[in-house]
Amino acid sequence: IMKLKLPNPGLEDRILSHDELERLEVEEAGDRPKWDNKAQYMLTCVGFCVGLGNVWRFPYLCQSHGGGAFMIPFLILLVFEGIPLLHLEFAIGQRLRKGSVGVWRTINPYMLGVGIASLCVSFLVSLYYNTIIAWVMWYFFNSFQEPLPWSQCPINANRTGLVSECERSSPVDYFWYRETLNTSAAIEDTGGLQWWMILCLISAWGVLYVCCIRGIETTGKAVYVTSTLPYVVLTIFLIRGLTLKGSIDGIKFLFTPDLNELANPTTWLDAGAQVFYSFSLAFGGLISFSSYNSVHNNCEQDAVIISIINAFTSIYAATVIYSIIGFRATERFDDCLSGNILTLLNTFDLPEGNITESNYQEALHSLNTTNPDIISSLALKTCDLNSFLSEGVEGTGLAFIVFTEAITKMPLSPLWSVLFFIMLFCLGLSSMFGNIEGVLVPLQDLKVFPKSWPKEVISGVTCLVCCLVGLIFVQGSGNYWLALFDSFAGSIPLLTIAFSEMIGVVYVYGIDRFNEDLIFMIGHKPNIFWQATWRVISPLIMLAIFIFYFSTTVTKEIFYIAWDPESENFPTLEKKPYPSWIYVIIFLLAGIPSLSIPCTAVFRAIREYCCKKHPSVRKIAFFRIDGILLLFFAIVPIKNMTLFVKMP
Amino acid sequence: MLAGVLLLIFLPPLVAKDLCKDSQDGFKVRLSIKTGLGDDAYEWNESEMFLFRSTLAYAMRKHSNQDTYTIDNILVCNDTQRVSFVFVVTSTDDPDQLIPKEQVELAVRQNKHRINNAFLLSDMTLEFMGIPPTLSAPIIYDTEPWLIVFGVVIGAVAVGIVALLMSTVSKKRRAKEKAAGLSEEDEGIVKENGTALSSLGRKEGVYNQAFSNDDRFTKL
Predict the structure, then answer these.
(1) Which helix (H) or strand (E) holds A556?
(2) What Pfam families does the record tag this protein with (chain A) (predicted)?
(3) Distance from B36 to chain A by nearest Cα, in Å?
(4) How many other CB atoms are found less than 10 A from the CB of residue B69?
(5) Which tens digit of pLDDT belongs to each residue from A444-456?
(6) Distance (Å, rounded) from C-alpha A551 to C-alpha A570?
């Protein structure tokens, strides 16, 4: 299995030889865009990898899977899964000097499907990712007022009290679910388009268009700001956070190791998935960015540096987030306790200051012994700091509910709000650059647009189409659609693509040829670590994650959580099952990218066989290959399809 | 006779106490001075109570537009260490008659702001049980602040797009003019190796290997 190489005739004709590459390098000929300097390239890749997931997914995983102990599976899988895949994508892009579609078509025309799958996934992810940026912009626009609109409930129509939906939940929940999303109660009722969200979506796509209008010429300048500003803001928040009461409790809670979690397979699975998605692999964007480098760029060093920066950013962001969450939990705990103390003072008409936080327990105990029935009738809340700390949610809940609430409790709230949302905006935008690159370059390679159209028009049309399709997410049920896209379009297809990439480079392109290319590019043969991980370890890890992910997704009940003011458990979100027609959508989202890998191979094979009248030896060889490749790439996606069909 | 006189003297306060204690028209008041003022908290004593009664009398005066209310019209009882007590308001015409609850409530609501300020407290820390705090009017903006920021951002984006597109158009126009200009100059220049000298972009020209500067052998 180590030295297996699938037959791949014609490869030499499709790629540039080393001498041709050298000449291209020296003469600086060719119309391919180039990076102005190495810093631009590094900042763009760091920006693509470091995204919203580092801020709102990693801290939650860290805290829920045993704190400091989570670092162990995370770092192990980073080294054995993340870095090898990253190096592979950088190296193949730099060597073949094409975007994702071009690279796979060059390696073998039957592998064109991998490039198309990357294109589909990049497109689907761009759609919903930019909607999240639109939400961030809405909050940013609303941060320029004091008091912040999510700090208090609005008054109802006849001025007798607060709006009931807000009173039953909280001002931050109300602002998010009602005034921002205006969410409907179920995914079936569309709820109509929300005009304010349309404006925010237009501004999000507008900003993206300005930055991507001429490809890396403009994004290369934009990343100087979008990739560095988050670090500045994180540092400011760290300093602010550490001066707040309760922040150290939060950080301690985050990092307290629980080594028992290491025995739980979900921990390893989540760590692997997080490493994988965090590196934005299989989108095709990294291959594109790397192809604009000079051919002797040290991609090995780049891969290691970017991985280290990504890991460091995750840990740093987790520290900052949890210092603020610790502050919020302490505030809530103090409020809870003061509320109880006030109730006791009022009921027993004791002077103020008689019961304080320090003697609360003894006072309660003594009062309970003297008047137990009164105490039980009071319904005092139990105040537990740990339960407030574990309320740390993930995803949009963390950013738009928990963190915004914490901000309202800080002095000078509008300033912190503006800084926080600028940071989220920059994180999201720099990731979008990579996504859009993964959409635009394949479209150009596939010659979808006429050659005469200038780059500006192509990127404009793409952004316009994405904006229009993205209107799905600004209707009343948009939040549920977004969660759907996130779970299915951005998960399983990526795993399939990454697995195919590894197999494609190692076994179809040939690991020997790849090693020679690396000797040519960086001067030395990649050492035993790279050989072992590329050939065996990383594909196995990918396969394991895929199987686990797939089986857990397919076997469990698929439901979504909805904000329904009429439900019994309001304000807790209600679990609702998906309607049956959603399963078709799920199949399209996950299936189309994955199935395009074998389907393209089949389509090409049929074309080759039917159109050419005289089968030669070469034809037979092709047939043999497409048979092998078909079997190989069809197993996984067809299993995908049949298991979906089984569902009710 | 003496008993009768004594009864007459002590009856009003007794009756007053009964009026306050048993009445339905009283309101319970609770003050949380330490919570509201922290280190600047003052002691609750008779003088503070005097101030309270006088502010309530003031509130009744303003509400009923009668200048006859005095501090004796405000009766207080059930004073506790919490700093909470019950008060009732007697009518100016008849000291045994109480002002109905609704009237007192209206008077308090109208002047809550003044009463709060007299004690440096707020609606949260000076509570009248049964009288909900009046909600402040919602701030109505002429233009929502978020629309203003949105306008700024969209304006910047539009300017950026136009500027970049203009620079592309002008670059293309300049390149076209340069190409047109070059093709006019080409006719006069001797071609070398199929390319015009000027398009090589070098001012010094091309070094002609055939011409040797070394004239050692030709000096003779």
Answers:
(1) none
(2) SNF (PF00209)
(3) 11
(4) 24
(5) 888 888 888 888 9
(6) 32
CA distance A544 to A546: 5
Neighbours of A577 (CB within 10 A): 11
pLDDT digits (tens, 9 = 90+) for A279-297: 999 999 999 999 998 889 9
Scanning B145-164 for CB atoms below 8 A from A yields: 145-150, 153-154, 157-158, 160-161, 164
Whether cis (ω within 30° of 0) applies to the bond prior to A84 is no
Q: Which residue from A137, A144, A342 is facing B145, i.e. has the nearest CB?
A: A144
Angle in degrees, CA B96, B97, B103, rounded to 5: 145
Instruction: Looking at the complex, report in whole angstroms how far the Cα of residue A390 sits from the nearest Cα belonging to chain B.
Output: 30
Q: How far apart, in whole angstroms, are the C-alpha atoms of residue A231 and residue A279?
A: 18
Element housing A455 (H / E) = helix A455-469
Residue A413 near residue A146, CB atoms below 8 Å: yes
* Yes or no, beta carbons of A206 and B34 under 8 Å apart: no
> Which residues lie closer than 8 Å to B182 by C-beta, 6 or more apart?
B196, B198, B199
What is the spatial distance between Cα B89 and Cα B57, in angstroms, rounded to a whole number? 8
Q: What are the tens digits of pLDDT across the range A468-489?
A: 999 999 999 999 999 889 888 8
Rounded Cα distance, B125 and B30, in Å: 8
pLDDT at A632 over 70: no
Q: Which of A51, A194, A216 is CA-nearest to residue A129? A: A51
Higher pLDDT, A273 or B23: A273
Q: Is A353 on the interface with B (CB under 8 A)?
A: yes
Among the partner residues B35, B138, B154, nearest to A352 by beta-carbon distance = B35
How many angstroms from the chain centroid is the CA of residue B89? 37
Residues 6+ apart with CB under 8 A from B55: B111, B114, B115, B118
HSE toward the beta carbon, residue A320, CA cutoff 13 A: 24
Query: Which class for A646: exposed (0-12), middle (13-18), buried (19 or more C-beta within 10 A)?
Result: exposed
- For A380, left (φ over 0), alpha (ψ -120 to 50), or beta? beta
Distance from CA of A257 to the nearest CA of B (A): 39
Residue A627, pLDDT > 90, answer no
Query: For residue B97, what are its two tokens?
Result: 């008659």
| Confidence check: pLDDT of B7 > 80 | no
Q: Out of B83, B138, B160, name the one closest to residue A154 (CB).
A: B138
How many interface pairs between A and B have CB atoms less than 8 angstroms apart? 77
Nearest to A159 among B84, B135, B160 (CB): B135
Which residue type does A198 have?
I
* Contacting residues of B for A28, CB less than 8 Å apart: none
CB A32 within 8 A of CB A289: no
Residue A214 touches chain B, beta carbons under 8 Å: yes
Q: What is the mean pLDDT of residues A18-31?
A: 76
A50 among the known binding-site residues?
yes
B146 contacts in chain A (CB < 8 Å): 138, 141-142, 144-145, 196
Q: Which residues in chain A have their CB less than 8 angstroms from residue B158's CB?
A: 206
Angle at A550 between CA A546 and CA A555, to 5 degrees: 155
Cβ–Cβ < 8 Å for A484, A589? yes
Check CB contact of B175 with chain A, cutoff 8 Å: no
Smallest Cα–Cα separation from A236: which of A320, A334, A124? A320
User: A142: nearest CA in chain B?
Assistant: B146
Q: Is the pLDDT of residue A613 over 60?
A: no
